[in-house]
């Protein structure tokens, strides 16, 4: 008689535990990450389904809370900013997006777009006026670059800034602006009438005559996020509103690079939340008298998804180390953004199949993450744009036109 083979019990591991990524994260960065994770788990996740269903987000309340944690502009130095490592910022983005992409978008736009633009290109007066309040969450910022007809091609922007004596007068429209309707200040980019029609950045207080920010409704993605249009109708600004150190498109593009770095980590947070939810569901869901997790097809799916999540995390941590070392290049950020979002949305969709009909409800976060990632796939550079950035780096040939 064949002797029955006894298989010892195995303690289930988490997907990232399988890769041992904790060993690659420093103690201080890990502590920051854990603080943000605890906040998201206790204060945000219980309310997200309702916010998503209602198509709303209490931006000011949340900004104050994350500001008190030191998350807003956390990777910047001075002016009330925490001055953390880039890796810590990435890990914080991961935890925020494990809650919801809308929450991470709020923080990204505030810290890596609006605050970063003022911090890097602003005058000392602008920095003193806005950055401490924005770091604390007392003032909300937005970033006006994208236009209705110019997303991937910001060089075609039609928003104009014309000199009138010592003032500037801005006219134009910006679209798909996170935080726009609730912002206290907007960093707006416009083509000027200076020689060469150089693009310049302007710090626009929300109460300025001619400035309005109607909210965009009826979204199917990023519902727990405030998305707006910015309308500039004869907005008159003094010379002191200009960001003095930003001339040309390199200014706004460098800000976008900061924001998409956070997405490299953030999208993986959404994927991790989907995968951990699905693992727990598969262990408990009984089908044909045994757990869904005990089937070979289920395990094959879970293994493949964990592999992609782990590879994405290893790349993200490597890019974080490069950024902390001051050697991260824009095309490397494109590698991370393309990979993280592409794999995250694939993981979210696959997880939805494993949850069956339960996967389409807000009882579980999977469909919400999948819908949100459709937006993340598009903003801060579409997948196609990042493919072309990488292609140019490999071949030396620009193929954008």
From TrEMBL:
One of its GO terms (molecular function) is fatty-acyl-CoA binding. Keywords: FAD, Flavoprotein, Oxidoreductase, Transit peptide. Its cofactor is FAD. It holds the Pfam family Acyl-CoA_dh_N. GO terms for biological process: fatty acid beta-oxidation using acyl-CoA dehydrogenase; fatty-acyl-CoA biosynthetic process. SUPFAM superfamilies: Acyl-CoA dehydrogenase C-terminal domain-like (SSF47203), Acyl-CoA dehydrogenase NM domain-like (SSF56645). Residues 142-235 form the Acyl-CoA oxidase/dehydrogenase middle domain. It comes from the Bacteria. Residues 252-394 form the Acyl-CoA dehydrogenase/oxidase C-terminal domain. Residues 27-138 form the Acyl-CoA dehydrogenase/oxidase N-terminal domain. Belongs to the acyl-CoA dehydrogenase family. This is Acyl-CoA dehydrogenase.
């Amino acid at each position: 008689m064949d002797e029955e083979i006894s298989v010892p019990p195995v303690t289930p591991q988490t997907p990232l535990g399988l890769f041992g990524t904790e060993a690659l994260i420093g103690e201080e960065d890990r502590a920051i990450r854990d603080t943000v994770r605890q906040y998201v788990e206790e204060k945000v996740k219980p309310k997200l389904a309702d916010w998503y269903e209602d198509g709303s987000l209490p931006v000011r309340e949340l900004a104050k809370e994350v500001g008190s944690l030191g998350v807003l502009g956390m990777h910047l130095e001075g002016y009330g900013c925490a001055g953390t490592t880039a890796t810590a910022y990435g890990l914080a983005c991961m935890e925020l997006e494990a809650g919801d992409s809308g929450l991470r978008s709020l923080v990204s736009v505030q810290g890596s777009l609006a605050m970063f633009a003022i911090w890097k290109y602003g005058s000392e007066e602008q920095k003193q006026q806005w950055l401490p309040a924005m770091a604390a969450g007392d003032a909300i910022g937005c970033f006006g670059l994208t236009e209705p007809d110019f997303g991937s091609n910001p060089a075609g922007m039609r928003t104009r800034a014309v000199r009138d004596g010592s003032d500037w007068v801005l006219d134009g429209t910006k679209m798909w602006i996170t935080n726009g309707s609730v912002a206290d200040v907007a960093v707006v980019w416009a083509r000027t009438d200076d020689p060469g029609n150089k693009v310049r950045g302007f710090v626009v207080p929300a109460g300025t005559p001619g400035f309005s920010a109607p909210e965009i409704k009826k979204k199917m993605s990023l519902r727990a996020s405030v998305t707006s249009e910015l309308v500039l109708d004869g907005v008159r600004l003094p010379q002191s509103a200009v960001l003095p150190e930003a001339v040309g498109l390199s200014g706004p593009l460098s800000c976008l690079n900061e924001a998409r770095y956070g997405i490299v980590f953030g999208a993986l947070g959404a994927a991790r939340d989907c995968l951990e939810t699905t693992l727990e569901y598969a262990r408990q869901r009984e089908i044909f008298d045994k757990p869904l997790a005990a089937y070979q097809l289920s395990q094959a799916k879970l293994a493949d998804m964990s592999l992609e999540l782990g590879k994405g995390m290893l790349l993200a941590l490597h890019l974080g180390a490069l950024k902390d070392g001051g050697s991260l290049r824009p095309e490397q950020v494109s590698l991370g953004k393309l990979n993280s979002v592409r794999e995250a949305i694939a993981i979210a969709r696959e997880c939805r199949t494993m949850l069956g009909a339960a996967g389409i409800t807000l009882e579980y976060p999977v469909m919400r993450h999948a819908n949100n990632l459709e937006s993340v796939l598009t903003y801060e550079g579409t997948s196609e744009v990042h493919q072309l950035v990488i292609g140019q780096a490999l071949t030396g040939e620009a193929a954008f036109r």
